Structures
1.
Amino acid sequence: EVKKNGKNGYQYYSDHLDAHLLERIELEADLRKAIQRNELIIYYQPQIHAHNSSLIGIEALLRWNHPIRGIISPSIFIPIAEESGLIVEISEWVMRQACLQMRKWQQEWELYIPVSVNLSTQQFHQNNLAQKVEQILLEVGLEAKYLELEITESMMMDICRSTSTLQELKELGVRISMDDFGTGYSSLNYLKMFPIGKLKIDQSFIRDLTNSESDKAIVATIISMAHHLKMNVIAEGVETAEQLAFLKESGCDDIQGYYFSRPLPAKELQRVFLGKCKQDGKVGAAKY
Ligand code: C2E
Ligand code: MG
Ligand code: MG
Ligand code: MG
């Protein structure tokens, strides 16, 4: 038996593991009830045109307001939702809520820009995804071009299936962007075959951009490649004026990050951000 008593590494490791497992089981049980209990909330983060600083899109980012633990990050509970199958119900809820909110912003704020929704791996592989999306758009009364779906490179492993799913979505008229670009298995050869309108440069390349010559080279290369492939490009995780300056200089189309705004609840975003954009006439959909 490997496990020993006393204050040795094994015992500690084992206790730690049990606690971790228990927490996970508990979270999964709580997550099952989260939708019904209205504990899930969507935060919205603006996407800004690099050159005229107008608002060109808004990304929907899920939060879980746990009754005891408070706000839990999606990087913690999305994996639990994926493994337990709860992701199907949660994903559908997110897409419907985000579309409803954008329809409301159109009607009440004349805000005609797309809302971006992150697709989960399971959702992307659902065989009726395009019909599901179409059904939600019809139900909500939102035109397809005002919905953008974010996928990641790791979802594209099955090239044949991915290509046909993306083709169906494209025919529906929704926009498609590649999230976290540069962190997965980017096969540049397939990139040109997929109907992807936009690359989102992962924030890991932006973080040290100002001091790292290699990150500068990678970012400039991604921008140039995207443009050669007639794709739009947005940088994620932009926090400083220096990062913004480099991205502008390199021809990056759009910017998302704390520099402009953190993700905020809809009402909060209206108060601190949308009002000013409207007032300054700085709203316009991206051209792709
Ligand atoms: P993502 O789609 O790549 O979203 C960008 C993440 O970067 C968000 O984290 C956002 O809050 C954060 N971020 C934005 N600007 C900055 C910045 O300037 N600095 C820093 N340090 N971070 C910034 P968040 O909201 O915690 O979401 C994490 C991930 O969880 C998302 O990454 C996405 O993959 C996933 N996720 C979020 N909502 C959903 C959802 O509704 N469905 C699915 N399937 N996944 C979701
Ligand atoms: Mg995203
Ligand atoms: Mg990302
Ligand atoms: Mg991500």
2.
Amino acid sequence: MLNVTAYAAASPTADILPTTIERRDVGPDDVLIEIKYAGICHSDIHTVRGDWGAQTYPLTVGHEIAGVVAEVGSAVTKWAVGTSVGVGCMVNSCRECANCRAGLEQYCEGGNVGTYGSIDRDGTVTQGGYSTHIVVDQDFVLRIPEAIDLAVAAPLLCAGITTYSPLRHWNAAPGRKVAVVGMGGLGHMAVKLAHALGAEVTVLSQTLSKEADGRAFGATRYFATSDPATFSELTNEFDLIINTVSAEIDMRAYLSLLRLDGVLVNVGAPPEPLPVPVFALFTNRRSFAGSSIGGIAETQEMLDFCAEHGVVPETELIAADQITEAWLRVLKSDVRYRFVIDVATMV
Ligand code: NAP
Ligand code: ZN
Ligand code: ZN
């Protein structure tokens, strides 16, 4: 076992405080990563605060991890010490089911092993990236291209892939109108990625306070959802809507914005079920769908795409002792657009 420094929550209501956690010894197929940066995802907050169900505490969260390979196991062929790498939301899956064989490990029929709060193969509860080191199977490690500064790369490992995957699956491309609901961590990446994929991008945010940023990220239109005129003006407008909102929104209003065969994809994961009025789906033969992160191959594809197209997250670097405060700001939608923990401050 390796004892490493981490920040953890002792209970659903606790602050995120320094502690020591155990990482397994580096096995033949494992990579030891020295974590340099860890992004703060709203899922970290939902998980610790119990929004999605009971957890085992203390819990270290964080699934946007950027670092450097520090040691490799005897059978590791893919990675060498010193390489810049990332880890996202999964650290293992069965590898045998149809979905795993199709490169869709996030939909592993037996359930993937999440980077934190999951039962690992050895029976322990996985602990995430708010930490100085992590040990991960070589197949669940991603290469961070040189063109992407490690200090801003971490949010790609969740916010990036979670928006890239549905944009690709539902064909965000030239000639297609895409709306992004909520411009926080996931939302700002959805805007940048949909624009880089060639789609015409509209932001639907609670207010117009971030309009200049949205346009700089590639949106050509920007509307406040607090203004009812937005919904009448945009009725039957979009091919694809990506909803990144972490709370309940009025599905009838947002579904009304889809044109024929349009799809509203929920990536936001509010604690309560979202009521979907079926009559809003009948009109225009609309679909309501969900999407979860992305597979390992697609995550690498996304990282390479971002390097090629100069797509990088907008980040605010914080020290580890500011995590609790940063969480409060995320909860107030006061994030521009992803907090990233400088792990060098964790000593
Ligand atoms: P975030 O940074 O907090 O962004 C959410 C945005 O939603 C906010 O910035 C805000 O945007 C808008 N919003 C928040 N509360 C709202 C409300 N009550 N009504 C309307 N709009 C509201 O969170 P995130 O890290 O991007 O994560 C977003 C959601 O996706 C979370 O629920 C998270 O758990 C989930 N998630 C899912 C997956 C997946 O695989 N499906 C992966 C990662 C995260 P504006 O200020 O622009 O209105
Ligand atoms: Zn996440
Ligand atoms: Zn599987």
